[in-house]
Amino acid sequence: MACSEPGSSRGSKPIQANDAMRKPRILLAATGSVAALRFGNLCHSFSRWAEVKAVATGGALHFLDRASLPNDVILYTDEDEWSWNHMGDSVLHIELRRWADIMVIAPLSANTLSKIAEGLCDNLLTCLVHAWDYSKPFFVAPAMNTLLWSSPFTERHMMSIDEQGISLVPPISGAMAEPSIIHSTVMACAGPGISPWEPTQADAALSKPRILLAASGSIAATKFAHLCRSFSGWSEVRAVATKASFHFIDRASLSRDVILYTDEDERSRWNTTGDSLLPIELHGWADIMVIAPLSANTLGKIARGLCDNLLSSVVYAWDFSKPLFVAPAMNTLMWNNPFTQRHIRTIKDELRISLILPLTKNGAMAETDEIYGAVRRCLQSRFPRGHVAGI
Asked: Angle, nearest 10°, between helix axes 92-99 and 124-131?
């Protein structure tokens, strides 16, 4: 698609704000998909550093919780578009088109995709798209079931919007990309000026932060590739995976520039006296470590000081003056077990490991955009702006 790789946005020019100090203006839109349940998270991600306005179709309102939106985000619907009364009254979709520096539709349903591809404009959102200035960045994150995604109609419609210069944030078999992926893709592709975190040419000469990501045996490891991609756009990423995590990780979905280490690598690296030790190498290389997901088993090993695999050996050798984050993931019964609570207290109080807990669902891993945000804030406070590229 038009911007499937950072920096390749066709027809998209860097945002030139009249006032260099004003925040970028981002128009977020949601259409009728169950993925609209995550629209609030997406709005929060962008509103930390940008002015955000939102548009929702009638279908999106079946899933979108208005109370989950940031207080300063205005949500527009078709009713607002049809509030025009007299000649000379402003037209909402024209106002929003002029206001926005960038537009993002996430989720983009099959129905709205087809409307955009065929040039229909029967609601506020499609009127906006029809009137959009395509010299400004425009992203879509499709969301639909696998059968719809595989339909020849969808393929044809995707080709059509690509020709229009609309940038794609690819789904996984139809499922919408993680909010953190959408967030990082927009920042990486939109050009200088879109975000206060966008690296400049001067930053290119600086070192990128080095992040060691690790996954242990939990079904939440299915999200590990998404997490790697969200960080690899602006940092150096290496990954560690336990044997149990391979039941859930698709290696082919990892970013090409992310090196994945396993227990086999630790065993094969050392042959004779003087050979380097992989846990020590990784400990020395990384600025920060993140274990997501952290299973009950690996949590217990860390809390009790066991080191019987690569991941637990890295933790055992870790320099705790450097940040180490964990995002636990287990079923509710295991989460509420007294052993788990004791282990959590140990790693938090004695080892000073930072916990990233979900807002809901006891034991469920935090959303990837919550993990991304926690690590990003830590790096920003740890490294002054201009010291490390992308921070």
From this structure: 50
Q: By the 8 A CB rule, do 256 and 250 touch?
A: no
Entry pTM: 0.53
Continuous H helices in 123-176: 124-131, 146-149, 152-164
**Strand, helix or coil at 349?**
helix
Residue 207: which residues within 8 A CB-CB, separation 6 or more? 388, 389
What SS3 string covers 165-198? CCEECCCECCECCCHHHHHHHHHHHCCCCCCCCC
For residue 208, pLDDT beyond 90 = no
Supply the pLDDT for residue 361: 66
pLDDT tens digits along 285-342: 999 999 999 999 999 999 999 999 999 999 999 999 999 999 999 999 999 999 999 9
Separation of first and last alpha carbons in the chain? 28
Asked if pLDDT for residue 360 goes beyond 70, the answer is no
Would you say 100 and 136 are in contact if contact means Cβ atoms under 8 Å apart?
yes
Query: Which single residue is written with the structure tokens 């909010």?
Result: 179
Sheet containing strand 259-261, strands side by side: 259-261, 236-241, 210-215, 288-294, 324-328, 354-355
Domain map (residue ranges) of the chain: 25-187, 210-382
For 29, the enclosing helix (H) or strand (E) is strand 25-30
CB-count exposure of residue 77 (10 Å: 0-12, 13-18, 19+) = middle
Q: What's the fold here for domain 210-382?
A: Rossmann fold (3.40.50)
Task: For 228-279, write each residue's pLDDT tens digit.
Answer: 988 987 889 999 999 999 999 988 888 878 999 999 888 776 665 556 688 9
Architecture of 25-187 per CATH?
A: 3-Layer(aba) Sandwich (3.40)
Residue 385 pLDDT more than 90?
A: no
The Cα–Cα gap between 355 and 341 comes to: 13
Asked if residue 149 lies in contact with residue 35, where contact means CB atoms within 8 angstroms, the answer is no
The string of DSSP codes covering 86-117 is STTPPPHHHHHHHH-SEEEEEEE-HHHHHHHH
Separation of alpha carbons 231 and 245, rounded Å? 20
Q: What is the DSSP string of 271-289?
A: -STTPPPHHHHHHHH-SEE
Question: Would 25-187 and 210-382 be classified into the same CATH topology?
Answer: yes
